[in-house]
TrEMBL record:
It is found in: Cell membrane. InterPro entries: BP-dependent_transpt_permease, MetI-like, MetI-like_sf, OppC_N. The chain crosses the membrane at residues 20-43, 166-192, 199-221, 227-246, 277-299, 334-354. Keywords: Cell membrane, Membrane, Transmembrane, Transmembrane helix, Transport. The keyword DNA damage does not apply. GO terms for cellular component: plasma membrane. The keyword Cell membrane applies. This is Peptide transporter. It is a multi-pass membrane protein. SUPFAM superfamilies: MetI-like. It holds the Pfam family BPD_transp_1.
């Protein structure tokens, strides 16, 4: 089909599909979004916030396997597959066990087997009709920790998967808030001009003169520590870039003939702005939103590293780095590198998508 007969959206999509790294980054983001939504289905540790741990198996290397003695527990409800198991499954890492008569003796896991503590419990703790064979089959299982365990003996892979929710959510919520505020202020400043424009640009310059992290910290302290407070704080610091871009677009588009025609027909200013001007100024806003996704993830990670982000026991990649950065020089760097690499890949993916969108939406390029 001739390019002249294709819509601008069709041409942009065609150019986007031709960019290998852009498509790959978008697929990576989609996969990570799927993982974050079904995190508790995919994570080995299905307790809320992946918070089950045992200090006897703390800081174990990737691939560590241990025998786990499981006690009976209730099955998960449908809602818990999205929110996590409220009541943690009771299980104990052990070295070995033996059944004598109607009791079971097990030795708790210890790096030094000679120091292992033994305990004896009745078989009835596992149910009324439990035998030695059923204990071995149903209640003693080998558990492998693919990425090892953290300093509290928690499964690092599970914490990494659950922690992806914070990074993905901060991106969506912060960008949504920044778009809501930025488009509003940018649109009225660009359309009305005069004192309205002067006031909005004064406000933008004031906010832009304050270092982003310091401003986020100030808003966070004002709103209080918490999950959603961080999202709002980050979003309220990112709208200025959107406002400046939208203002410039509106100032340019409002001089066009179709806007003049809309005014001549007696349309209200609000209808002209939202129905005619803004839809024609969204291309650069989409590009800057992709970059803001990456910025929001980094800012949240910085806040978590400072202890002002998502509060324990909620796992976040920044918090995981904070808890384990000293292990980099203690021979277990993967405890900090795993969340660091995950964050790097996600931020890089958003930046690549943003760059690809910029090229695809550039109508001047071939």
């Amino acid at each position: 089909m001739d390019k002249a007969n294709q819509s601008l959206t069709g041409l942009a999509l065609q150019k986007f599909r031709k960019n290998f790294w852009g498509v790959l980054s978008l697929v990576f983001i989609a996969i990570l979004l799927f993982i974050s939504i079904f995190a508790y289905v995919l994570a080995p540790d299905k307790t809320k916030d992946a918070n089950w741990g045992d200090l006897s198996i703390h800081s174990k290397s990737p691939g560590f396997t241990v025998k786990m003695l499981h006690f009976p527990s209730e099955g998960m409800t449908f809602s818990e597959y999205f929110t996590g198991r409220e009541t943690p499954e009771q299980k104990i890492p052990i070295l070995k066990y033996e059944v004598k008569g109607d009791s079971l003796t097990y030795f708790e896991y210890n790096d030094e087997p000679s120091l292992a503590v033994s305990k004896t419990i009745p078989l009835t703790d596992f149910g009324p009709k439990v035998t030695a064979a059923s204990v071995a089959k149903d209640h003693v299982k080998d558990q492998q920790f693919i990425l090892g365990t953290d300093s509290q003996g928690r499964d690092l892979l599970s914490r990494l998967i659950i922690g992806s929710r914070v990074s993905i959510a901060i991106g969506f919520v912060a960008v949504f808030i920044s778009l809501l505020v930025g488009i509003f202020f940018g649109a009225i400043a660009g359309y009305y001009g005069g004192k309205v424009d002067a006031f909005v640009m004064w406000l933008v310059n004031i906010i832009w003169s304050i270092p982003t992290l310091l401003l986020v910290i100030a808003i966070t302290l004002a709103l209080g520590k918490g999950f959603w407070q961080v999202f709002v704080a980050v979003g309220l610091t990112m709208w200025v870039e959107v406002a400046r871009v939208v203002r410039g677009q509106v100032m340019s588009i409002k001089q066009m003939q179709f806007v003049t025609a809309a005014r001549a027909l007696g349309y209200r200013n609000s209808r002209i702005i939202f129905n005619h001007i803004l839809p024609n100024s969204m291309a650069p806003v989409i590009v800057i939103s992709a970059a803001n996704f990456a910025s929001a993830i980094l800012v949240e990670s910085g806040l978590s590293f400072l202890g002002l982000g998502a509060q324990p026991p909620i796992p976040s990649w920044g918090g995981m780095i904070k808890d384990h950065y000293n292990y980099i020089i203690l021979g277990k760097p993967y405890l900090a590198l795993a969340p660091g690499i995950a964050m790097l890949l996600l931020v890089l993916a958003f930046m690549m998508v943003g760059n690809t969108l910029r090229d695809a939406l550039d109508v001047k390029s071939e």
